[in-house]
Design goal:
Layout: E1 6-10, H1 14-25, E2 29-34, H2 38-48, E3 51-52, H3 56-60, E4 67-70, H4 77-86, E5 91-94, H5 101-114, E6 118-121, H6 128-138, E7 145-152, H7 166-169, H8 173-188, E8 194-200, E9 211-218, E10 222-229, E11 237-243, E12 246-252, E13 260-264, E14 271-272, H9 281-295, H10 303-322, E15 326-327
Parallel strand pairs: 1-2, 1-4, 2-3, 4-5, 5-6, 7-10
Antiparallel strand pairs: 7-11, 8-9, 8-15, 9-10, 11-12, 12-13, 13-14
Helix pairs in contact: 1-9, 4-5, 5-10, 8-10
The structure holds nicotinamide-adenine-dinucleotide.
Nicotinamide-adenine-dinucleotide binds near residues 12, 13, 76 and 94.
Length: about 325
Amino acid sequence: MKQGMKVGIVGCGGIARAHLGAYKELGAQVAVVFDVVPAAAEAMAKDIGAKVAASVEEAAATPGLEAVSICTPPAVHCDNSLPFLKAGIPVLCEKPLEVSVASARKLAAAVKKTGTPFMTAYCHRFHPAVIKLKELLAADVLGRPLLMRNIFGGYVDISKNHRANPKLSGGGTMVDNGSHSSDLFRFLVGDPTHVSAVTANIMQDIPVEDIGLMHLQVGDKALGEIVATLSLPVCGNWIELYCSKGTAVISYWNEGHADLSYKLAGTKERVTVDCSGLPQRFPGQMAHFLECAEKKCQPATTVEDGLKATKILCAAYKSAQTGRRVKLSL
Ligand SMILES: NC(=O)c1ccc[n+]([C@@H]2O[C@H](COP(=O)([O-])OP(=O)(O)OC[C@H]3O[C@@H](n4cnc5c(N)ncnc54)[C@H](O)[C@@H]3O)[C@@H](O)[C@H]2O)c1
């Protein structure tokens, strides 16, 4: 990969620091930053000698800019991406793509019209164990996926964060963590045809849910059960994939468990898969984005992936509100 690529960051909060760190590691130079809170942009810029833009349009007009990360709350992902797309500057946009299907469609239409590379930041697709599991599926080692169970949990107080403001976030933990989960379900199992969901506030007194449970269905071929929460103080992060020939389990950050293991029907031994040698998911995602930005090609996780996850999540909220299963048309 080319060294010294000139990149920008819009939204200088929590995840922007991870983007900044990864860009540095990959030899890219963050040349311009923008945040609606000038102090946030200035704090980031002063460490790295970047320019602080006065607006997102000014950031997009930076001479020689080769890529940008959009790290703002979801409700302004579309508005902040458009000036860069129009200027032909490749965009890495944080998940979830947007808060409504209409704004996600607007973004997808702009990507199509401009042809500018655009990546929805579904970093879990770059998790080494997920990459290895996808390889097992491609080689038909496990057979056909029948049931995926996934929990992304833990405890984070989100009361003072954009995640507790539905106008900025589009919902609570179901759209936050659950955005990754819906994308992983599509990646590993397929496009769901139906979704039903329930949400609740089990620990945090906030205007959005702190736990969401989604049931996804691919016709009568496969099912998914997803728990998305930030209110379980001790909680693993797991993917279990039950297939026609065997079952695989991915455990994230769980001491004493392998990242990926599987057991085939009719065998006694659980096979542990070596996932070393691959970059961790965040640097892996960032390296892929910069490679695509340099080559001006569309990344592996596209705006269409972001749009489809948004359709699933908006339908899940509709189901939670109405108590009915919702048909999807992806
Ligand atoms: N991929 C992951 O695992 C992961 C992890 C954390 C966050 N995220 C995503 O990253 C995004 C940001 O999350 P965060 O935790 O960094 O939030 P944050 O609240 O820490 O930071 C957001 C920043 O955006 C700024 N901002 C708000 N509106 C803006 C606008 N219109 N223009 C420019 N800047 C604006 C805020 O001032 C703040 O500095 C969200 O979409 C979130 O879902 C992804």
